[in-house]
Amino acid sequence: MFKVNDNYLKLPGSYLFSTIAKKVNAFTAANPQAEIIRLGIGDVTQPIAPAVIEALHKAVDEQTTTEGFKGYAPDLGYAFLRETIAKNDYEAYGCDIAADEIFVSDGAKSDSANIQEIFSLDNKIAVCDPVYPVYVDSNVMAGRTGTYDPKSETWSDVIYMPCTAENNFCPELPKETPDIIYLCFPNNPTGEAITKEQLQVWVDYANKAGAVIIYDAAYKAYITEKDIPVSIYQCEGAKTCAIELCSFSKTAGFTGLRLAYTVIPKELKCGDVQLHALWARRHGTKYNGAPYIIQRAGEAVYSEAGKAQIAEQIAYYHKNASYIFNGLKEAGYTVAGGVNSPYVWLKTPEQMNSWEFFDYLLEKANVVGTPGSGFGPSGEGYFRLTAFGTYENTVKAIDRIKKL
Amino acid sequence: MFKVNDNYLKLPGSYLFSTIAKKVNAFTAANPQAEIIRLGIGDVTQPIAPAVIEALHKAVDEQTTTEGFKGYAPDLGYAFLRETIAKNDYEAYGCDIAADEIFVSDGAKSDSANIQEIFSLDNKIAVCDPVYPVYVDSNVMAGRTGTYDPKSETWSDVIYMPCTAENNFCPELPKETPDIIYLCFPNNPTGEAITKEQLQVWVDYANKAGAVIIYDAAYKAYITEKDIPVSIYQCEGAKTCAIELCSFSKTAGFTGLRLAYTVIPKELKCGDVQLHALWARRHGTKYNGAPYIIQRAGEAVYSEAGKAQIAEQIAYYHKNASYIFNGLKEAGYTVAGGVNSPYVWLKTPEQMNSWEFFDYLLEKANVVGTPGSGFGPSGEGYFRLTAFGTYENTVKAIDRIKKL
User: Which member of A6, A64, A290 has the closest CB to residue B120?
Assistant: First the structure.
């Protein structure tokens, strides 16, 4: 008789955003007149930039002729896109990353969930707490996290690195040495960034400890301050210890188009085994590439017109973030993030826990946010609002909250 | 110090089609004047159908406004597509499959590689031999296959079910009881189909043995004969033992657009655990859906115009398959497949092994095919040619082979 992967059964409840969706659906069903404003899930709302639309139409038209038709893409992505990324996202920042160290994929979610697969099951992971739930959940599903304690909401074999107001949302080096360290900066959910100097400490630590850093830079397009690195490869020595995950989702509004890339430098090795070779093998065996037309869309993000249009979108979301940040501050909330990030992270008021505040906001202001505890135990007592709504809705939502 | 997933290191050599690509590149470099015809990798060549192109353009245009913009897709696929599939691919054939038992994804390759993840590591798999290499390789990477014997080119913990001329390319029930049975019909690589009566034997066996069948129906659009099932759910009892994988790649030329779906009936359980729930959890945690515009393209495949245009494409490839089949037969080869399939499977002549015949064909006729041994030990001495080229090239290639 076949048996299932028991690790799946250890996962408590459903994926955070599915739970939120269910709660919102139930509320809407009971209150059909309520005008809900969603500042919960980190999904963008601005239309796709004209330069990208143009590239999509052009690529679609190519598929109408035998000459222009594109079948299976190269396993690791089209050269035109990988070279454009290498030039614009690395060479331009003084990082020595070659086009063939870049793997194109359909999403940073997939990559951040799948990357653990190339590591041994007895490796120990360390995660920021709070953090994007996919890092821990994907390791749970693989069987790498030990047993779950429902009381503390933690796994026995995961090293949690609290990121709270007490340490300015920047984790301290862990006491126990991890094998795999997940870092996400600018951070989801806190919205706080890490300076180059602070990140260098992590790179040095990883190289010394023989750990690998999985660096999620999905929000790098929102960096506004000068001393914040856009890539971990701006730090000395990162190529021997770090994998970097990047996404077009938040940079160019590709949440519905699906495009991302992961960088694995060839120098990154365990003994004489390149992680690059393992990830290439995974791509070759278990994936068939992102659609050609989407890869052409990604290329257009880096065109002159594309860059200008996308800068405008980012500015639009930054304006939202400022409105949220300042509005909440005026209303007496303690807030973080919002400067190098589309996320504002607030302390829940009056000892409310995160889900209580979620319900309170949904009922009283018809605003949907994300409970901090959904991102890990140290997220309890916090709450995330995103700047990805329309400006009008953002203003309306914050003004409602201010009136509570 | 971090460690890698050792199972990856057990994989012998690289993925079959990467090896072929390297050999062809080397030959082309040495013989730049040679006009290579590729009937190797199963990639389509006909342009995308006009109805699909129209749907793509329309969906792209929707992304230009805030109202039309689509962000994250529903985890399991848009309802419009899942309902269209349920109606056209199941209801139309008398199969009781609900829209919410259909999971939309970016490819049957990904799905067939990832599906093993929801099962326990100590489950034993059975595969047809020869077979699409992804089934075995993905299980090797997970650590489910034991040790590799380079001499027999087999894994100690895999049950191989030979499909050769001796049994008309239809596997016999295995002596040892497997937990997971991979079946692919019409088969890749042999091009042979299974009758409904033969498939019913497998369904009854799986239900009795408590095994689950992973049924790869990627080539179902090529079925021409009446007693061949287009879905395993046409067999009585399949809903309690079978998962079905389907793809738009070969049906509608989507190899570069990337769209597929997997069916997991809710009745399919291990104890009281639904496999449906596990796969849903995997989608929710590790995947973010196929692009909206591609899902709209998939929907258009089922429109009246789409159906007619795609039937023409399939007829085009069938014409190629017949030319290959008949041409090789005339030239004295022993051939199979080609009737319910875009693949023709030939016996290599004069005791040549599969790779010897690959080199021979590449050098003497400048034709690229796929060595049968790349699909498993019982594929040795066979060779696969695909009907996915242009008609002109197909004729040219076969005529060259006939002249050898």
Answer: A6
- pLDDT, tens digit, 9 for 90 and up, residues A108-160: 999 999 999 999 999 999 999 999 999 999 999 999 999 999 999 999 999 99
Start-end ranges of CATH 3.40.640.10 in chain A? 54-303
A82 is in an annotated binding site: no
How is residue B16 written in tokens? Answer: 């079959």
CA-derived radius of gyration, chain B: 21
Residue of B110, B268, B285, B370 to mutate, testing the A interface (most A Cβ within 10 Å of its Cβ): B285
Domain B6-46+305-403 sits in CATH at 3.90.1150.10
For the domain made up of A6-47+305-403, the CATH class stated in words is alpha beta
Q: So what's the ipTM on this one?
A: 0.96
In this structure, whether the domain defined by B53-303 belongs to CATH 3.40.710.10 is answered with no
CATH topology of domain A54-303: Aspartate Aminotransferase; domain 2 (3.40.640)
Q: Return the minimum-mean-pLDDT range out of A205-214, A292-301, B69-78.
A: B69-78
Cβ A270–B47 below 8 Å, yes or no?
no
Under an 8 A CB cutoff, do A64 and B48 touch? yes
Which residues from A are below 8 Å from B71, CB to CB? 43-45, 253, 255-256
What residues of A are in contact with residue B53 (Cβ under 8 Å)?
60-61, 63-64
